[in-house]
Design brief:
heterodimer, A: 176 residues, alpha+beta, OB fold (Dihydrolipoamide Acetyltransferase, E2P), six-stranded mixed beta sheet, 12 strands, B: 688 residues, alpha/beta, Four Helix Bundle (Hemerythrin (Met), subunit A), SH3 type barrels, five-stranded mixed beta sheet, 22 strands, 46% helix
């Protein structure tokens, strides 16, 4: 094809793009992180995280709180790190590699073992009413994916579980 | 300020400092005369007068002048100032303070202490903690910054060197490309030279960067420290409150303060000092008896009110003590009954129950509310502060002997010097002020201590706990080398010892509480952030004491001590001082040490005993350090033992020579850094 022919084709494509209805990316889809924690596949809503960090050193903490691995430093702040697999009831001896900073206060990081990929799926593929049986109410939904279904971890529910485990009482005003 | 050039800008700062000195000086004078405090006060007042005149602050200048006039007759120090003179000095001090405060904050109405209580004198209800950092602190910070900047020089030189080497490399590449190089041998020699120079430049860079890193650490620690104020900053106002109350009551009362150096956030000190002003006034008015009563009871005529500040684990503890009559339990019981505060049907409450009622408010410990204080108000203030800062209050009273009110508040930020120790593959920090001593432990000692749970220290047996056990967080410690030293710690109920792998020097740090969702064993008091931005645990002596007492988990896990122990280290140096210094450093870090005064002796010793490392000087009579290292490298039985050179020679050529001889590390005496030396040893030493 000649240069003139290619120019014509590009121009037609350009013009046609205006004739198509506007696509709204956010509407009707949900962004998820496909992860694995304790060798089991899960999905996490990206909107419920304020950051994902690999290989951050975690200072181990002697504690009796289930799932509390230790503390890690984030821009000068010291943040408690909980093992997601342990919180969901199936701990493995391996130290998780990834930390997800959960939205909300007080600061909280959830550790998981592998970050598989990032996903954008239609709402329709998220199925409610998943029976998480004994996961402390942290798994309500599931996402249908070509390579199998993944339970979606409800990060706010996990946070509530952590608050319960750590005996945290919210205070109206932080004394700082 | 509306204008950039505010003529009073510097005067405000200077006047505030001078006024602080005058206030403290007057109180010093009040508690004991003498020529020295008088002369100091005169000097300060004179400076203030001069400065005030310059900026046309006539009122302040006049007051300062009047202050001088009152003081001049007492310059000789023969007679202490009369009561009238003291009163006048205090009055003038208040006047000057008020004027200076007005300058700083003109529209502010006079500060009262609360609607229930007539304000006594112009003592502020809450000590205004000077937000400006103390000059000395700033000086130290500036010094540290200056030091860091100075460390940049080698980097700059290094940049020039790299540029030069870059050019040489290009020339060499050109020659090789064009093929005009005389012979391959010359090119090889040039490349070799280049590689050598690059190597030494690289090492100099590494050293410079290491040093800058350390200096920056120091800067960071000092800057963090500036966020905190010393507890001593609230004592002057309290002394003044005691003085005023004693004056009003016609009593003689001495004020004592302890713990002025404990530093904490100004947001804590402000409210606490406010409440404690009430407490010290209460103590004077209701606690300290009138002189005849004191004398009759066999007490000194002069009463004492003491305020103590100390850090206890993760809490700051403020205590107000007096040697007065204690709370009047009978009166308290009556008041409680009258007000219907005692549950009907129950027997009379015990003393503790009554004190608890006092604490919860509603009962004054004084039969009459005087102008200066009613104890209930004081207690209310303390209780309110405790609630606000999530603290705890304890009240004790011994009839006839005095009372104490203690407020413990959790600390958010606390500056301290920490002793860093490695245990179970982790680096943790102990507050240095609770450490009584360190003892080197041989493998046998460590094993005995771990089995018996005791260690002999200072002639008695102290409980012993391997720190790795207290810190056990569920995973094995891969890097643990076994216990090499014991740190003896002063706990609430006596001494106890912690077994650590090694000591890693001290550092200034700012500790903060563990985050809310990180509930840890009581052994962990707080956390600090190290130079790499990672959290490091700061241990709590009382929590550790509890662990030691509980003998926690002693059978649950295999002993943490059954791991590799380092072989002894041979120190070679002709200087006795250096030998002894190095020995003490190494032994504190848990190593066994032999000493040799010459390289000849050392070679002899090395053939009769198995060593884990040689630490040798360079310049010695006879065989020098370089030769010693070369000879040991050449001897197949000794070649496997790493050597570290320690020398005052600082040139790159010497470093290169040391490396060529086969030394594993080179430490300059001029910049002798324990932590670094121990780091090298830890890395190199051969273990059995």
């Amino acid at each position: 094809m000649t240069v003139a022919g290619r120019v014509t084709r590009l121009r037609e494509e350009f013009d046609r793009s205006f004739a198509e209805p506007a696509r709204v990316l956010e509407c009707g889809t949900v962004e998820l992180l496909a992860v694995s924690a304790g060798d089991r596949p899960y999905a996490l809503r990206l909107a419920e995280a304020s950051g994902v960090h690999p290989d951050r050193p975690v200072t181990p903490l002697p504690t009796s709180v289930r799932g509390l691995l230790g503390v890690a430093g984030f821009a000068g702040a010291v943040v408690p790190v909980y093992d997601l697999a342990a919180l969901l009831g199936h701990p493995v001896p391996r130290r998780p590699r990834w930390l997800l900073l959960a939205q909300g206060t007080p600061p909280l990081a959830l550790a998981f073992h592998e970050l598989d990929r990032h996903l954008r799926v239609p709402f329709a593929d998220v199925v409610d009413g998943f029976d998480g049986g004994g996961q402390d109410g942290c798994l309500h939904e599931m996402v249908r994916l070509p390579d199998g279904h993944r339970p979606i971890v409800d990060v706010p529910a996990v946070r509530e579980l952590v608050h319960r485990l750590a005996g945290h009482r919210p205070v109206p005003e932080e004394v700082r | 300020m509306a204008e950039g050039r505010d003529p009073l800008r510097f005067f405000r700062i200077e006047a505030r400092e001078l006024v602080d000195q005058i206030s403290a000086g007057v109180l010093d004078l009040d508690q004991g005369g003498g020529p020295e405090p008088v002369a100091r006060l005169l000097r300060v007042a004179h400076t203030l007068k001069g400065a005030a005149r310059v900026v046309k602050q006539k009122e302040i200048a006049d007051h300062a002048h009047a202050f001088e006039e009152v003081l001049i007759p007492y310059r000789g120090g023969d007679v202490p100032p009369s009561a009238d003179a003291m009163r006048e000095l205090l009055r003038l001090n208040d006047e000057i303070t008020a004027r200076v405060v007005e300058l700083e904050d003109p529209p502010k109405p006079p500060v009262g202490t609360g609607p229930d209580e007539p304000a006594p004198a112009p003592a502020p209800a809450e000590v205004v903690v000077n937000p400006r950092a103390a000059t000395a602190d700033l000086d130290e910070l500036l010094d540290a910054i200056g030091e860091t900047t100075a460390r940049m020089a080698p980097l700059r030189t290094g940049c020039a060197t790299v540029e030069r080497l870059h050019r040489s490399a290009e020339v060499l590449a050109d020659q090789l490309r064009v093929g005009r190089s005389t012979t391959p041998a010359t090119a090889r020699a040039a490349a070799g030279r280049l590689a050598g120079e690059l190597g030494s430049a690289g090492r100099r860079f590494t050293d410079a960067v290491d040093q800058i890193q350390r200096e920056l650490d120091e800067v960071r620690a000092r800057a963090e420290g500036l966020r905190l104020v010393p507890a001593g900053s609230m004592f002057t106002a309290m002394r003044r409150a005691v003085r005023d109350a004693a004056d009003a009551e016609g009593k003689r009362v001495r004020f004592e303060a302890r713990g002025a150096g404990v530093r904490m956030g100004a947001h804590l000190l402000g409210p606490v000092s406010g409440a404690f002003l009430h407490l010290v006034r209460n103590a004077v008015v209701h606690g300290i008896e009138p002189e005849p009563l004191r004398l009759a009871a066999g007490k000194p005529a002069e009463g004492t009110v003491t305020v103590e500040v100390e850090r206890r684990g993760r809490h700051a503890v403020f205590r107000c003590l007096d040697d007065g009559r204690g709370f009047d339990m009978g009166a308290l019981r009556d008041t409680a009954r009258d007000r219907g505060l005692l549950p009907s049907g129950a027997g009379p409450p015990d003393d503790a129950g009554l004190l608890d009622l006092v604490l919860r408010g509603g009962i004054s410990t004084s039969p009459s509310v005087t102008e200066v204080a009613g104890r209930a108000i004081g207690m209310d203030a303390v209780r309110e502060v405790a609630t606000r800062l999530r603290g705890e209050v304890k009240v004790r009273s011994t009839p006839g002997a005095g009372a104490s009110v203690e407020l413990a508040i959790p600390l958010v930020l606390l500056s301290m010097t920490g002793l860093n120790v490695a245990a179970g593959g982790m680096m943790v920090t102990l507050p240095l002020d609770v450490v009584c001593g360190c003892v080197r432990l041989s493998a046998e000692d460590a094993a005995t201590a771990a089995v018996t749970g005791r260690i002999v220290y200072d002639g008695s047996a102290a409980p012993f706990l391997p720190l790795a056990e207290a810190l056990y967080a569920g995973t094995a410690a891969p890097e643990s080398v076994g216990i090499g030293a014991a740190v003896v710690v002063k706990g609430e109920s006596g001494l106890f010892a912690l077994g650590v792998d090694r000591l890693a020097g001290t550092s200034a740090l700012v500790a903060r509480p563990l985050p809310e969702l990180a509930r840890a064993s009581p052994a962990v008091g707080s956390v600090t952030v190290d130079a790499d931005g990672n959290p490091r645990l700061v241990l709590d002596p009382d929590g550790l004491a509890a662990e030691v007492a509980g003998g926690r988990l002693s059978e649950a896990r295999p002993q943490a001590t059954a791991v590799l122990t380092p072989l002894p280290i041979l120190v070679v140096d002709d200087s006795l001082t250096t030998r002894m210094l190095e020995r003490s450093i190494l032994e504190s870090a848990g190593y066994e040490v032999d000493l040799a005064a010459s390289a000849e002796d050392a070679l002899e010793m090395a053939r009769t005993r198995r060593y884990g490392l040689f630490l040798t000087d360079i310049d010695m009579p006879g065989i020098d350090g370089f030769t010693f290292v070369e000879r040991t490298r050449a001897d197949p039985r000794l070649a496997g033992i790493p050597a570290i050179l320690v020398s005052s020679r600082a040139s790159a050529a010497d470093r290169d020579r040391g490396r060529d001889a086969g030394a594993g590390a080179y430490v300059e005496k001029g910049e002798f850094d324990q932590e670094r030396l121990l780091g090298h040893i830890e890395r190199l030493v051969v273990r059995s």
